[in-house]
Amino acid sequence: MNAPQPTAPTGLDGFRPGEVRGPVEQVDPYSAALEPFGGDPAAYARHHREAVLDEPVVLSVRNLEKSFKGLKAVDSISFDLHQGEVISIIGPNGSGKSTTINLISGFLAPDGGIIDVDDRSIAGLTVPDVAERGLSRTFQNGRVFGALTVDENIALGYHRKLEEQRPFRQLQRYPLLRWVNLLSETAVALVHGPKVRRERAAVDARVGIEVDRFRERLGSRRHDFAYTLSYANRRRTEIARAHIREPSLLLLDEPTAGMNQSETAEVLEQLQYLKAQGHTILLVEHKIELVTALSDRVIAMDGGRIIAQGDPDEVRQAPQVVEAYLGKRRELHVTRTRGQQDVLATQNAIEGAGAQDADEPEGTALLRLHDVNVHYGQVHALQDVSITIPQGAIVSLLGGNASGKSTTMKTILGLNRVTDGTIEYEGRDITGESTRARVVAGIAAVPEARRVFPRMSVEENLLSGAYTRTDRAGVEEDLERMYARFPRLAERRRQQAGTMSGGEQQMLAFARALMSRPKLICMDEPTMGLSPKLVEDVLEQIAALRDDLGISVLMVEQQAELALSIADYGYVLQNGRIRLHGPAGDLLHDPRVQEAYLGGAH
Predict the structure, then answer these.
(1) Residue 130: pLDDT above 60?
(2) Fewer CB atoms < 10 Å away: N or C end of the chain?
(3) What distance in Å separates the CA atoms of residue 36 and residue 257, rounded to the nearest whole number?
(4) Domains in the chain, CATH or no CATH each
(5) Taking residues 347-371, what's their average pLDDT?
(6) Do residues 449 and 142 touch, judged by C-beta distance below 8 A?
(7) What does the CA dihedral 467, 473, 479, 481 come to, rounded to 10 degrees?
(8) CA 324, CA 267: separation in Å to the nearest integer?
(9) What was the pLDDT predicted at 232?
């Protein structure tokens, strides 16, 4: 069958500074790529997988090694990535995936081995020098500049390719001469001529093209500050920033972490567009369905080594991968629903009378929000929110992005000011109390994306959780208790927290919260970015907090079916209001929740 070969990246190539173009017509290159194959994605994937192997090698990795204080994070791995190829790296947390990405992108220096891009060595180069060789990347936890707008964040990705606005950019690499480049950039920013204005207009047009890839999500938010965006939109902004330079190699570290199924499908669609355009992509991702749909080849890692590589379906079914990555999964005690589809299409389904008619959760109330209102400037973020958390219970807080879940949690912790309503804890009003006072009283937090102190050791992180305590002997006792509960932390007590895997950092975040001897722990997306095996482990740890220690838990979780599987009670937020609440077992099968959050009921 004569089918088109993968082409070099198109779209922005040849769009030089100073050249201003009009509005770009929205084109679906992936659909166009499917046409010669009768619209069959599987046939196109097979052809693409075979064709790219004849293309030049963009990235060559040989015997790459990295250790952290004797722990081998990457152990002599080798692979090639061809032009136009998409390779995904999978594996359990701690397998070495993100360390590999960090080595390639220059954030870590390898202990040994070769990293070549277009036959030029980049091993050990600084991050700016690696970027100059044509590499762009995103990060596991998402990194945007909150005080900059969406457009400004995306435009930053093109900074290193500017010519007129950086007339002495070559001097940036020389420490003694960097000031010349900085002064010249400042002067150009204050007094700019026609060439600079044309270059700025060209960059603005490029930003418009990147925003247009996510037009339904970012199109109306271009001039909004990034800190006002939902988590998913911050990730979209980051992908656009990485892509605007038209890199020869795009490194994506869990680009859909924290996204629901519908948002994941949208990002998959965008990545398929890039693949059809001929972009070269190295992806780290836990969501196997996305990996299988997008990848030409898959590399599975465990313990810092490659344990399997090849066709996506073959790798995901390999026994050693099933054991290492998926683990021996066991079903939770509560039956799970099927599918999380068409979430955005039915996001507003939880409306109408009777939404709050269910009884309050049983048991003595530990914390109660009564008609709480919170504003962000003119935005009414929470509207008459009432929530009860009983002693020794797990309560799940559900809802789509920007529904008010994290705002509710921050309000409980005292990080947001209540404009109306009350918060009661153990029967007393704490509405006006500080965050410190609430921590001392027994309210702790496990924040989104874990937020450990990366340059501090594991033990220092744990001790920071007990900073409000004065009983030194009790702190030492609890420290040993944490090591007994989380043996992996005991093994790595002297290791810097930032060098650990996402799963290990989540363990550390749990243990740090427990060091304050809390009665209530607020958890924001505790399973975000974790492998399926570790998701099960985290849920078991959360259930143990309730069952073994009698600690109450308020849990915000994107994977709602998992959250409801271990919860006692649940609340569904929409646009800052509680639309539905009830026993978790009932909500798990309530079609209103399934339609609005989990997708259509089957």
Answers:
(1) yes
(2) N
(3) 33
(4) 29-147+229-326 (3.40.50.300), 362-442+518-602 (3.40.50.300), 453-516 (no CATH)
(5) 62
(6) yes
(7) -130
(8) 27
(9) 75
